[in-house]
Specification:
Blueprint (H helix, E strand, L loop, with lengths): L11 H8 L6 H13 L24 E4 L8 H4 L7 H13 L19 E4 L13 H6 L1 H11 L5 E5 L1 H13 L2 E2 L12 E6 L7 E6 L4 H6 L4 H14 L15
Parallel strand pairs: 1-2, 1-3, 3-6
Antiparallel strand pairs: 4-5, 5-6
Helix pairs in contact: 4-9, 6-7
InterPro entries: UDG_Type-4/5, UdgB-like, Uracil-DNA_glycosylase-like, Uracil-DNA_glycosylase-like_sf
Pfam families: UDG (PF03167)
Family: Belongs to the uracil-DNA glycosylase (UDG) superfamily. Type 5 (UDGb) family.
Length: 254
């Protein structure tokens, strides 16, 4: 794992700013910058972001959504997580439906989108070729996720993980940042739910929810429907105390 030379950020704003300068993974740096120059034909007139994409949402979020990595022509183009691509179309529409976003669309960084008590991040902050970061790249990026969870800890009450990659990346980080992860580790699945006990001062019990990723492969085939995603987000929003009475959990648990 790369040792990051920067001083550990002491706020979410400082973290987001520090991420922008990261060049720890040569393959990802080369790819994100190449895509920003070559561009997709439909976006030929757009100025691509072409840098690491920081998390998005308030610094005192009670709910964290963890994805995979920015899309080459989505976040890598617009500079915001799940913005400007079909995966984001599905995610933000669902967030709006359950009351966690002020609008159903995410087109660019300045489109007025605001999340309610919710923040979105990823284990890898640069767009990877074929949407597949390597384990080494995930480890290089772990410093940022460690720091983000530590900074969010005072208010964090629930996490939704989109996909198995994020689930596997997140569990060891949770264990290292103050929560007790059961052994054997909880298994990923859509609708999976478990509660992690606090293992350090300043931590509260944390409810962890699993959902299939909002990739086109899942949404176009019906493996993940809008209602399936809304059900998980609604349960997590209730568990975080953002929606309703904070008592909602999905029927299926693991």
């Amino acid at each position: 794992m790369v040792r990051h030379a920067c001083v550990v950020p002491e706020s979410i704003a400082a973290l987001d700013a520090a991420i922008l300068d990261c060049r720890a993974c040569p393959r990802l740096v080369t790819w994100r910058e190449k895509v920003a120059v070559d561009k997709r034909a439909a976006f030929r007139e757009h100025e691509y972001w072409g840098r690491p994409v920081p998390g998005f949402g308030p610094p005192d979020a009670a709910l964290l959504i963890v994805g995979l990595a920015p899309a080459a022509h989505g976040g890598n183009r617009t500079g915001r997580m799940f913005t400007g691509d079909r995966s984001g179309d599905v995610l933000y529409a669902a967030l709006h439906t359950v009351g966690l976003a002020n609008q159903a669309t995410a087109v660019h960084r300045d489109d007025g989108l605001v999340l309610r008590g919710t923040r979105i991040t990823a284990p890898v902050h640069c767009a990877p070729p074929a949407n597949k970061p390597t384990p080494a790249e995930r480890e290089n990026c772990r410093f940022w996720l460690d720091t983000e969870l530590t900074l969010l800890a005072p208010t964090l009450r629930a996490i939704v993980v989109l996909g198995g990659f994020g689930w596997q990346a997140l569990l060891p980080v949770l264990a290292a940042t103050g929560w007790v992860v059961p052994k054997p580790r909880p298994r990923f699945g859509h609708g999976a739910h478990t509660e992690l006990a606090p293992g350090a001062p300043g931590r509260a019990p944390l409810r962890l929810f699993g959902s299939y990723h909002v990739s086109q492969q899942n949404t176009f085939t019906g493996r993940l429907t809008p209602q399936m995603l809304q059900d998980v987000l609604d349960a997590a929003g209730r568990a975080a105390g953002i929606i309703g009475d904070g008592q909602g959990v999905p029927e299926r648990q693991s």
